Amino acid sequence: MRRAPLAWAVLLLAGLAGCQATPSRLPEAEPPPAAACRWASPAGPAPVVAALEAEGFVIRHTEASLGLVSAERARPAVFHGAPEPDIFLLGRHGHVGGGVLVGGGLGVLDDEATGIERVSVVAGGATVRVSRDLRLFDWRGELRRARTASDAGFCRELREAIRRRAEEDA
């Protein structure tokens, strides 16, 4: 009689193990990068590095054989959008000055945050490809928002800056 519960447990575990499956596709940037983030250009990594540094980016990694340049910049921001309110006012209705601030402190309504903008540029061969993402971290260092931001406006500005740097270097 002891074998029946053991057999059921083995069948249950085997069934649950089969529930874990591999994804049907690899992760992709959503929304995908704008068409303006890919253009034909013989520019190598040198003008890309110069253009990004001129815009305040710090170069984090380069791989000359691939033409890859990874950079980021940080900017102070304000985080509006806590999922739940940070303050509660308790007291009588209409009583001026009555109430208690719970969970208070300075900056309780608008927490200071840091926005991190990361850019990767592949300028190897005859094509330049750009990808960019934005992340917002609250004052505790917790990630609050993240999104891809490879939009046409940013890529056009970067393309023009790279073109100017390439002309200066020539």
Automatic annotation (TrEMBL):
Keywords: Signal. Residues 1-21 form the signal peptide. PROSITE patterns: PROKAR_LIPOPROTEIN. It comes from the Bacteria. This is DUF4410 domain-containing protein. It comes from Halomonas koreensis.
